């Protein structure tokens, strides 16, 4: 539990959660370790790592062991609510784009783009141009559509939209407060870590994890250091 404690009270680094996750996986091999504690704590780790599908499985196991376990039920409801909100925001845009595509089809001519534009696009990418995992030597740019997390939640979760009008999820560690990154702000993420946001491994949405806030600019400026301090202090209250 030391890794989990350090995450909440000292610094918000995913590596601490990964270490804690490894510890609980080892504990699972020990029959004497309380199953309910194992599932609820591992589920909490997976939830903070944005691995909602795996977290859901552990919370459901905890409830199966102890049907009266309210905390597991609350976490499940919280994840479901957030996922439903993301789905609503993303799919609303997808529906509008489908209608627009049905009315108009525009093909770009080869060689139409200038060399300068091509060089710019090799650095600044849309979500559809990224591969799974870390994408070095590129920057993902998008505008915030909506913050879908509570003020003191970790990570802070946003739905954003790129230059191609594709919406995706961004999970930001190391920051706190819903006023630091307002709706409409432009985010530029260096070396974006690309994954999937899913609750059941059936429906999934593109997701970018940002652990190091120094790789992120908001409207062209770095997030101030005191924003990170606020995030840590808010969890201690």
Query: What number of structural domains do the residues give?
Result: 2
Helix content: 40-55%
Main β sheet profile: 10 strands, mixed
Spell out the helices and strands N to C.
Answer: HHHHHHEEEEEEEEEEH
Mean residue pLDDT: 80
The helix count comes to: 7
* CATH domain fold name of the largest domain: OB fold (Dihydrolipoamide Acetyltransferase, E2P)
Q: Under the CATH scheme, which class of the largest domain?
A: Mainly Beta
Query: Could you tell me the radius of gyration in angstroms?
Result: 20 Å
Q: Termini, distance in Å?
A: 20 Å
Q: Quickly give the CATH architecture of the largest domain.
A: Beta Barrel
InterPro entries: TPR-like_helical_dom_sf (IPR011990), TPR_rpt (IPR019734), TTC5_OB (IPR032076), TTC5_OB_sf (IPR038645)
TPR repeats: 36-69
Keywords: TPR repeat
Protein name: Tetratricopeptide repeat protein 5 OB fold domain-containing protein
What does this structure look like?
With 237 residues, the chain is α+β, with helices and mostly antiparallel strands. It folds into 2 domains: 2-74, Serine Threonine Protein Phosphatase 5, Tetratricopeptide repeat (Alpha Horseshoe), CATH 1.25.40; 113-236, Beta Barrel (OB fold (Dihydrolipoamide Acetyltransferase, E2P)). Helix content is 44%, strand content 21%. The chain is built from 7 helices and 10 strands. Strands 1, 2, 3, 4, 5, 6, 7, 8, 9 and 10 form a 10-stranded mixed sheet that branches. A hairpin with an 8-residue loop joins strand 3 and strand 4 (156-162). The longest helix is centred in the middle third of the chain and has 34 residues, at 70-103. The radius of gyration is 20 Å and the shape is globular. The protein starts with a helix and ends with a helix. Mean pLDDT is 80; it is low at 97-113, 115-121 and 229-237.
């Amino acid at each position: 539990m030391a890794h989990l404690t350090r995450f909440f009270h000292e610094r918000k680094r995913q590596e601490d959660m990964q270490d804690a996750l490894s510890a609980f996986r080892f504990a699972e091999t020990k029959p004497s370790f309380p199953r309910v504690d194992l599932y609820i704590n591992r589920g909490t780790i997976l939830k903070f790592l944005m691995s909602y599908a795996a977290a859901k499985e552990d919370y459901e196991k905890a409830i199966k062991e102890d049907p009266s376990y309210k905390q597991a039920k609350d976490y499940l409801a919280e994840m479901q609510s957030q996922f439903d909100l993301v789905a609503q925001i993303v799919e609303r845009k997808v529906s509008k784009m489908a209608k627009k595509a049905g009315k108009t089809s525009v093909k770009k001519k080869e060689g139409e783009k200038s060399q300068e534009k091509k060089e710019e696009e090799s650095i600044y990418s849309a979500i559809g141009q990224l591969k799974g995992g870390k994408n070095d030597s590129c920057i993902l740019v998008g505008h915030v559509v909506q913050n879908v997390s509570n003020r003191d939640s970790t990570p802070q979760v946003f739905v954003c939209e790129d230059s191609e009008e594709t919406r995706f999820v961004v999970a930001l560690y190391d920051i706190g407060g819903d006023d630091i990154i307002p709706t409409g702000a432009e985010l530029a993420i260096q070396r974006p870590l690309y994954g999937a946001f899913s609750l059941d491994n059936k429906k999934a949405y593109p997701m970018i994890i940002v652990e190091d806030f120094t790789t992120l600019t908001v409207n062209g400026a770095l997030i101030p250091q005191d924003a990170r301090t606020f995030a840590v202090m808010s969890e201690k209250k």
